[in-house]
Amino acid sequence: LSSQPGVTVGVWHILPASSQASCAQHSCYDQLGSGQPVVLYLHGNTAHRAAPQRVELYQVLRDLDYHVITMDYRGFADSSHAAPSVTGVVADARAVYDWVVARSGQDTQLIVW
Q: What is the pTM (predicted TM-score) of this model?
């Protein structure tokens, strides 16, 4: 996902448990508007989105039937190798937030964590 010109951020979309079976049959790109709440998980300034304790949290949220959107800021994991800055990481988070809002329904509960 592009956050600024020349900067991309790696993003995961973990589906709610109730959506997994239906997604095995067709594309799931439109699932954010399915009515289940969405958690946008912004993990802070250490490590990356695949850290074991974070993956455990995603599983708990998935089992509670939440969509989980998580990302890595610039300079981390598979995001662009640009130097992180306050302005940059805010732009990264805002780009993912805007992406989620554009794809989820107006009545979808969005939790930013």
A: 0.88
- Residue 44, exposed/middle/buried by CB under 10 A (0-12, 13-18, 19+)? exposed
- Name the token pair of 2: 């592009």
* Token pair of 27 as six digits: 């594309």
At 57, list the tokens.
């949290």
Report the distance separating Cα 88 and Cα 76, nearest Å: 12
Distance CA 65, CA 9 (A): 25
Task: Report pLDDT digits (tens) over 9-20.
Answer: 999 999 999 887
- The amino acid present at 104, given as its one-letter code, is S
**Pair 63, 17: CB distance under 8 Å:** yes
Question: Rounded CA gap, 89 and 79, in Å?
Answer: 11
